[in-house]
Each structure stands twice: as structure tokens, then as C-alpha cells.
Amino acid sequence: MGLVSSLKNLNLNLSDLEEILAEHSIASVTDEQGTIVYANKKFCEISKYPQEELLGQNHRILKSDEHNSDFFTDIWEKITSGNIWVGEIKNRAKDGTFYWVKTTIIPVKDSQGRIKYFVAIRTDVTKEKQMYEKLLQVEQELIQQNLSLAAKVATKSSDIVKNERLATIGTMASRIAHDLKNPLTILHTYADMLTPEILSKLDSKDKEKWFRLQNSIFDMHRIVDDVLDFARTSELNKKKTSFMRILRLSLNNVRSTYGIVIKLPENDITLNCDPRKIEGVMSNLINNAVHALDGQGEIEITLSFDSNNIIILVKDSGPGIPDENMEKIFEPMFTTKNTGTGLGLVICKSIIEQHGGTISVDNNPTTFTIKLPA
């Protein structure tokens, strides 16, 4: 009955201790070696061990692996030095569940000042820990949401500024392009009319110059058309139209394809679309492919469909698009050409999206994929 004698020396007996602690605290007493010699009712309830299984055991029976060996070494060194230790410990109950306890370990000394027992008083803080961890999780989620929201706001703000700037540029460019449209049309028409007569009188060097002049006029005409198309948005005028008819009309707007083979689809399909706008899309994609091939290569246009989409592929045998440009290819004003506005593919994307479809690009070989609702 050494424990009872020790408690009496502290003017407490076992029944007094039980009465004081039983209703609130989880209490245990170990001897100087750390062996459990007393565990109250609350201790047994939270650990789910009956008292007879706890007595004679070390507190390692409750080890949860939450804390490393240094943690327990520090506790042991402190209390065996006669100091009180206060902290939180995660324990494992007999059924494998975990619980947290706020713990105070008090060394109890005999009359000679030697440690005889360690009294541990604990409070269950499992719910508080769970709440704290939940709050930490919510805090992290809120931080991430705030960062995401800030990024979206920044993107939206950037887009608004960009759109306002583009709208201003578009308005100014539209006025200039409109004024250039008529004289360019006259130049383009007369150049086509004069070509047979002039070619018969020119040597090979002068013919090359004439073709370069024609191509320059054609490029200027295209730039003006791109600017006007970008500056104005009009409602779709949808009607059922043969895709091959649209494609053949678009080829009339393609610059010289000498040395380039263009393979057309062998099949046809009826599109419910604005034929003029889809014609513009195809002209733009084919002209881009012609430019990429630089006078030699192959362009293949294929037509297929699945249960949901009509799929149009425009593939060329050119050198491909540099990887660093792939994500910018549909951005306004982005171009790798010496001539051009960088608006062509932006207009194509806008037109396809107006039709409820998508347009994307892949490399090796360069392939533009259009998907339109079937």
C-alpha cells in the first residue's frame, strides 16, 4: 500500500483523489520506473482498457506513433529531473481509435526528495483538436480560394483592359481599312484583268516581279478584310449548305498555290451554318498553310463526323508551329508573319464558337481541327 502511504504524506488518500478527479480528469499514477500503478475510471473509459489491463503496464501501451522517440525522451528527462511537464499527447485506445489529451505530469517526491511516483492529470481535447484541424483545413481552402479568385480577378481585369484597348484599336483600324478597301479592290481587279496581257510581254524576272506585286496586293486585301471582320460582329445567317461548295468557294480566295498540292475530301456533308463565314474560316486556314509551305508541300482537308460533331481537319506538311507559339496562336495581334494583322485565327475562333463549335491546333504535322455541332 505504498501509494496510499505516499498520498497520506501529501494529506490525501486514494479515495479523496478518486473523488476529486473522477468526475472531470483522466488520472493515472506511475512508479519511478514509469509503470502504471493507478488508473481512474475516466482513464479506463477513454483508453477502453479495463483497469486490470492497465496496471503493471507502461504508457507505451497507448502509443499512437504520432510523436517520435525524441518527444518521449524529452518528457522523461524533464520529469525525472523533478520538473512538471505540460503538453498535448495523441494516444491510441484499445479499439484502435485515437484521442488527444492535454496532459500535466507531476513528479511526487518522498521525504528525502527522491521521486517515488509520477501523477498524470489529463483532459480530453480530441474535439478541440479536430475542430482546430478542421479550421486549419478551412483556412487553407479559403486561402486557396482567395488566391484563385485573385487570379481570376486579375485575369478578368487584364481581359477587360485588353478588350477595351482592342475595341479602340478596332474602331480606328476599321475606319482606315474601310477607306483603303475601295482603292485596293480596284487594284486587285485590274491586276487580275491585266495579268494575261502583261505576262505575254514579260521575261521571267519581270514575271516574278509581277507575281510578287499581285501577291502583295492580295496580302493587303486580306489584311483589310481581317481588320473589318474583326471590328464588326454580325449575326449568323445560317442555312443548310454543302461543305464542298463552301470549300471550293474558299479556294478562290487563296493566294497562288503553285508547287503545292491541295487534297480535298472525297465525301461531302450538309452544314447548318453561315456559309460566308465558314468560307472565310477555310480561306484563312488554307492561306496560313500555303504560307507555311513556302511554295512546296501538301495540304490535306478531311471531313468526318461522330455522334455529336462534324469534324474538319486542315493538315499541312510544313515545318510546324514552334512549341512556344502554340498557346498564343489564337491570341489577338499575335503573328509570326512579316505581313498580317494577327487577327485571322482570332476571327476563325470567334466564328466557330458563334456556331457552337471549337477549333484547336496540333503539331507533327500541323493540323487545325474544327468541330461543329452535327
Classify the helix fraction into a percent range: 40-55%
Q: N-to-C terminal Cα separation, in Å?
A: 91 Å
From the 3D coordinates, which CATH architecture of the largest domain would you assign?
Answer: 2-Layer Sandwich
> Can you tell me the CATH topology of the largest domain?
Heat Shock Protein 90
- Oligomerization category of the chains in this entry: single chain
Strand order of the largest sheet: 2-1-5-4-3
- The CATH class label of the largest domain is Alpha Beta
Question: What is the H/E order?
Answer: HHEEHHHEEEHHEHEEHEEHEE
Overall pLDDT score: 82
Instruction: Name the CATH superfamily classification of the largest domain.
Output: Histidine kinase-like ATPase, C-terminal domain
SS element count, helices: 10
Determine the structural class based on helices, strands and strand pairing: alpha+beta
Quick one: biggest sheet? 5 strands, antiparallel
CA gyration radius, whole angstroms: 42 Å
Report strand %: 15-25%
3D structure, described in words:
By secondary structure, this protein is an alpha+beta fold. It folds into 3 domains: 2-124, Beta-Lactamase (2-Layer Sandwich); 126-232, Helix Hairpins; 234-374, Heat Shock Protein 90 (2-Layer Sandwich), CATH 3.30.565.10. Helices cover 48% and strands 22% of the residues. The protein has 10 helices and 12 strands. A 5-stranded antiparallel sheet has the order 2-1-5-4-3, sandwiched between helices. It has a 5-stranded mixed sheet with strand order 7-9-10-12-11. Strands 6-8 form a two-stranded antiparallel sheet. Strand 3 (85-92) and strand 4 (98-109) form a beta hairpin. The mean pLDDT is 82.
